[in-house]
Amino acid sequence: MKRVLVTGGAGYIGSHAVVQLLDRGYEVVVLDNLENGYSELVDRRAKFYLADLRDKNSLRRVFEAEKIDAVMNFAAYIKVGESVENPTMYYENNTYGVMNLIDIMVEYGVKNIVFSSTAAVYGEVKGDKLVDEEFPTDPINPYGMSKLMAERVIADAAKAYGLNYSIFRYFNVAGAHEDYEIGQKGEGITALVPIILQVAKGERAELGIFGDNYDTPDGTGVRDYIHVVDLVDAHILSLDTLKEGVSGIYNLGNGNGFSVLEMLEAAKRVTKREIPSKVVPARAGDPACVVAASERAESILGWKPRYTSVEEIIRTAWEWEQKQ
């Protein structure tokens, strides 16, 4: 496991994976079409290729030029609303792109893949129990379904072609690296933490809180937040299990739920700024509470999140935002 190909390595999570891999002594090859990625986020120690998962020939050029031991796939569209408006775009990129990637991996004898999936594969979570990997998968939007289909493609390919895989289902990823100038950027960001911080910076007038009548302590939705560095560290730890031929599906979260209002108050404490907000109608299909059970990643991979408070997570994101 010496050389790792990171697809989508010019994006938010991918760029963090690149620097963490490099700092641990791996050789890193980055593949990105720069549609939603940024070349300035790619560490100069990595080798970069402009390529697209939907184009087998561009993939083939990378595998022909580089000896790849494992692939970490972060290349995907991730906006739920956009997936509803343009579902075929999501299936083509998120599912068909993975099929192409696996075909080229098999062609060049690459046996190991780490796949970036999502808690959206679980669909509409009911109740307030922690969500573990055995929770039923029933996506309610094309984004979640495109990722679940890709998961199943990977699992079937593993049986057919002898691949090893780690599939990670993310909950809410936030924060930024404290040692490198990388963070979350781009048009149309829908994640709560960067939106709150955009209001704090005056780039948005106010935070829209989607509903305040949920069955939660303060009436607003409760979610699980994980720092991006903790997230990618789990991916890197899984390379050792792949080397031993161990495949698996893992949830990644902190195991602690925080409401929208709690996140808002935490951001006010971190930024020391007023952050205007107003309640707007709840979105259809939004569950009241979604919190991860991540014991499998802890027990099998030896993973443990280092950023355990939302203030720490928000602080790193705020420091990044202020530099932009």
What do you see in this structure?
InterPro entries: Epimerase_deHydtase, NAD(P)-bd_dom_sf, UDP_G4E. Belongs to the NAD(P)-dependent epimerase/dehydratase family. With 324 residues, the protein is of the alpha/beta class. It has two domains: 3-176 and 225-254, NAD(P)-binding Rossmann-like Domain (Rossmann fold), CATH 3.40.50; 192-222 and 256-292 and 309-323, UDP-galactose 4-epimerase, domain 1, CATH 3.90.25. It is built from ten helices and 13 strands. It is globular and about 55 Å long. 48% of the residues are buried.
Summarize the structure.
Helix content is 39%, strand content 19%.
Write down the Rg.
19 Å
Largest sheet: 7 strands, parallel
- String of helices and strands: EHEEHEHHEHEEHEEHEEHEEHH
Q: Can you count the helices?
A: 10
> In CATH's first tier, which class of the largest domain applies?
Alpha Beta
Q: Helicity range of the residues?
A: 25-40%
What count of structural domains? 2
Q: So, CATH architecture of the largest domain?
A: 3-Layer(aba) Sandwich
Spatial separation of the terminal alpha carbons: 35 Å
* Widest beta sheet: strand line-up: 3-2-1-4-5-6-10
Average pLDDT value? 94
Strand coverage percent: 15-25%
- The CATH topology of the largest domain corresponds to Rossmann fold
- Outline type: globular
Q: What would you give as the CATH superfamily of the largest domain? A: NAD(P)-binding Rossmann-like Domain
| Structural class by sheet pairing and helices | alpha/beta
Number-wise, the strands total 13
The low-confidence runs, each spanning 5 or more residues with pLDDT under 50, are: none
